[in-house]
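Backbones bend. Shown next:

***
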Amino acid sequence: MSDDYKSGIRNIAEEPWRQFPNHFGSALSKALVHPETTGSRQIDYRISTYQPMAYVERHAHKVQEQVYHVLDGEGLMEIGDEKRVVRRNDVVFITPGTFHSIENTGLGDLTFIVVTTPVKDE
């Protein structure tokens, strides 16, 4: 966890793009509010851009809840045994223990916000 646990303002350009573990094919994210960047303890807030065919592998969280908010593009969201197309303005809520994945199946970039709380599965 960062030693800089304090309120503040950050610009999206300040955070580099990175590919987190189990994300593949130019599935890039900026960890805007994250233990490593702000010292946050309860919130992981990222903006992600996946190029066509990029994806995060199917997974579930023990205690974490997640919200995906699609800003642009389209892709395929898997929630449990169901797969649905997601596109701009769709908001997806994932409960703990639910297997899920997202993949860019569209023609252009898929950009979305992901909010996870708490930061870690314990």
Summary: The mean pLDDT is 94. DSSP finds no helices and ten strands in the chain.
